[in-house]
Amino acid sequence: MNLYERFLAQDARALARAITLVEAGYPEGQALLRRLRGRGRARVVGLTGSPGAGKSSLTDRLIEEARRRNERVAVLAVDPSSPFTGGAILGDRIRMMRHHQDPMVFIRSLASRGALGGLAGATVATLALLEAFGFDRIFVETVGVGQSEVDIARVADTTVLVLTPAAGDAVQAFKAGVMEIADVFVVNKFDLPGGERIVQELRTTLELAAPRPGGWKPPVLTAVAPKGEGIPELFEAIEAHHQHLLEHNLLEADRLERARFEVESVIQEWGRRKTREGQALIVRVARGELSPEEAAMELMGLPRGVEAK
Predict the structure, then answer these.
(1) Which of 122, 189, 199, 298 could serve as 164's disulfide partner, Cβ 3.0–4.6 Å?
(2) What is d(CA 300, CA 6) in angstroms, rounded to the nearest whole number?
(3) pLDDT tens across 79-128, in order?
(4) Name one Pfam family in it (predicted).
């Protein structure tokens, strides 16, 4: 059987191979994606927050909770990659290895490849493959680089912001971006000193926040992931938000925004590749002989004086 037939036959190795081809940008992967896109309908949950907040531990427990409900689960852990070599640690899977023998769980790491939003450029394409494979729920765990992670809201149906008491004034740290996009807040490691203070800060800040689509009010929950405390409540809050999206017909808008993000990611990657190829133009910009706009026009193949719209 070819890769497409093996994929439809639920061969997990075919899924892994398809993701590799898509992530690398091979024509074979793009052709496969065109045939598979639009199949399936998974609930996509994004987990974001600062490094060390315990996102991987929470994800591990959420996998467990989803499996209790007989769901097929996939996890995309977007790992930081080196800005120099492009290599990544790809270490988040280590924390979830206890699920590796479960055929109903698929865990995959993607390198961020320098994506500023904390997401790999191939994340949305990989989501399409996972949906086509028939997973019920997909967790996307982002790199953890602060307020620039707002792109997760453009990809996930439900965005969970993970905070910890040890992070200090979490509201101050996140209010510039991530506070506005989170649908559910969870203070992990709540057994540490300062947990109640952060919960109160969050609730006070949210009372002053602008209304969310459909009138959704983000809940503030607590958890201690290693002990499994607060996990069922977190899962129920995620489910409640999904029901809210269904009741207010907001899911389709989420899917359109995800497609928009994917197109923009392709354009950004194309731009990065073009600038690497156009070293001579970059040198001329550095010397002041060309403006960045003029160099960009030339790289895009547009005549001078024509504005890109």
Answers:
(1) 189
(2) 39
(3) 654 333 343 444 445 556 677 778 899 998 887 554 444 466 678 889 99
(4) MeaB
In angstroms, rounded to a whole number, what is the distance separating the alpha carbons of residues 45 and 136? 11
Over the stretch 267-286, which tens digit does the pLDDT of each residue have? 877 787 788 878 888 888 88
3-class SS at 163?
A: strand
DSSP state letter for 172: H
Q: Say whether 121 sits in a helix, a strand or coil.
A: coil
Residue 35 CB partners (closer than 8 Å, separation 6+): 4
Helix (H) or strand (E) holding 17: helix 12-24
Tokens 């496969």 map to which residue? 32
Report the distance separating Cα 4 and Cα 6, nearest Å: 5
- The encoded tokens of residue 71 equal 């769901």
Query: Could you count the other beta carbons within 10 Å of the beta carbon of residue 286?
Result: 9
The pair of three-digit structure tokens given for residue 69, joined into one six-digit string: 């409900």
Structure tokens at 293: 């706009």
